[in-house]
Amino acid sequence: KQRYGAPRLTDELRAQGYQFNVKTVAASLRRQGLRAKASRRFRPVSYRKHGLPVSENLLKQDFYASGPNQKWVGDITYLRTGEGWLYLAVVIDLWSRSVIGWSMSSRMTAQLACDALQMALWRRKCP
Q1: CB 3.0 to 4.6 Å from 71: which of 40, 42, 75, 94, for a disulfide?
Q2: Rounded to whole angstroms, how far apart are CA atoms 26 and 23?
Q3: Where is each Integrase catalytic domain found (predicted)?
């Protein structure tokens, strides 16, 4: 990311043969009004107290399937890209552990999950 704060800049200067300590480099950066661009730690947001009905847990942690198309599971996650956030919805067959349907969108909507399920139904030739 090529972000140079006082510690990293001090290491670079020492590698070039200059003898400065971190405090001297930090003071010099402050005098010049320079600051390293620090990346903020990403914290996901979850809305667990939404008050909406939650679907029943039909699998009850039993993720074993003895054949294809017996148990499908799905999930939605978000990915940071250079252009912003993208949401990815996937449907996985627990027998083969393979992704059988997926959909991406810049917005997390019900249609995103429906599109992933529609792809899974189409790929598995279900009515």
Answers
A1: 94
A2: 5
A3: 64-127
